[in-house]
Amino acid sequence: xxxxxxxVSTGISVPDKVLTNQDLEKMVETSDEWIITRTGIRERRxxxxxxxxxxxxxxxxxxxxxxxxxxxxxVELLLVATASGDYLFPSTACVVQKNLGAxxxxxxxxxxxxxxxxxxxxxxxxxMKSGSYRNALVIGAETLTKITDYQDRxxxxxxxxxxxxxxxxxxxxxxxxxxxxxxxxDGKFTTLSNLPAGGTRLPATxxxxxxxxxxxxxxxxxxxKVAVRSMEEAARLTLKKAGLxxxxxxxxxxxxxNLRIINALIKRLGIPDERVYINIERYGNTSAASIPIAYHxxxxxxxxxxxxxxxxxxxxxxxxxxxxxxxx
Length: 328
Ligand code: ACO
Prior knowledge:
Blueprint: E1 4-13, E2 18-20, H1 21-25, H2 32-39, E3 43-45, H3 53-68, E4 77-81, H4 92-100, E5 106-110, H5 116-129, E6 135-143, H6 153-156, E7 161-171, E8 177-185, E9 193-194, H7 206-210, E10 217-218, H8 220-241, E11 251-254, H9 259-269, H10 280-283, H11 290-300, E12 309-316, E13 320-327
Parallel strand pairs: 4-5, 4-6, 11-12
Antiparallel strand pairs: 1-7, 2-3, 6-7, 8-13, 9-10, 12-13
Bound molecules: acetyl coenzyme *A.
C-alpha cells in the first residue's frame, strides 16, 4: 500500500490588527454592504510595519513544532508557499529556517499564488515517498497587505495577512493522512492577477512607484469564472484519482477567495453548505495561508474525526489550481 502523508500537527499566526469594512469605508469609496454581498468578507488582519511573511510563517511553524513536541533541528524539509515573500531572493523558506534554527533542513519556496500550500504538500509528499526526507514543515505565509493598494477599491477589500503550517511525516500504520492530489496550471491567464513591477520584467523606478505598479492588480470578473471552473476540475480529478466521488467528502475546505466563488463551486459539486468550512468573513483572502489556517481551525474545533474524508481545493494567480484529499 502507498504510504500516507500524516499530518502530525498544525499551527497558525494572524496579526492582532483587524481592518473592518467600516474602516475601509473611510479609505475608499465602498460600503460594508457591497463588500459583504460581493465577497462575504467582514474583516481581515493587517501586519504591523516591519513584519514580513517570514515572521508570521515562523510563528505558525513554531506552534506546529511545539504541538508535536519536536525541535526545529529535527526538521528535514522546509517549504514556504507565498506570493508575498520577504525578498525576490533569498527564499522566505531560508529566512524561516534561520529564525527557527532548523539547521538540518532543505528549505525552498513554492510559487503558485493561492494554490501554493497544496503545491507544497504535494511536493513534500513526492520527495518523502522517494525516500529523501522523513518529515517536512509545509508553511503558507502571506503579508499581502504590504502589496495592496489602499487607493484601489477593487483589490483592497479582498486581501489579508496570516500564516498556517503543517508538520508532516510518512506513515502506513493506519489510513490517516494525505492520499491523493492533483495539480494544474495555465499560463495563458498570467495577466488576470499579478504584481507588475519590482521583478526583472519591470524593475523599480520612480515611475513604477508613481504609477502604483508595485501593488496587486487583478481582473476580478475574469478571475471569478476561471476560479470556479478550475477548482471544480481540481476537486473532481483529485477524487477520481482516489476512486471517490463528491458524496464521499465529509468536509470541503476551499481556498477562501470569495464567498460567491465558494458557493458557485459547491453548487456545481453538489456538496451541501454544512459540509464546507468557511472563515473568509474573518480573514479575507490570505492566498497561500488560507487553507492551512482553515484546516487548523476546523481541526481545533473538533470538526474533523479520524475517519473524515477532507478535500482541500484551491486556485490562484498564474493561474494555478490544486486538490488534496486526506483522511483525519
Ligand atoms: N466597493 C464598491 N464598488 C466596487 C468595489 C468596492 N470595493 N469594487 C468594485 N466596485 C464596483 C466596480 O467599479 C463596478 O462598478 P461599475 O459597474 O460602475 O463599473 C461594480 O462594482 C462591479 O464590479 P465587478 O468587478 O464586476 O464586481 P464583481 O461582482 O466581479 O466583484 C470581485 C469583484 C469581488 C473582485 C470579484 O470579481 C472576485 O472576487 N473575483 C475573484 C478575485 C480573486 O479570487 N482573486 C484571487 C486571485 S489573487 C492571487 O492569486 C494573489
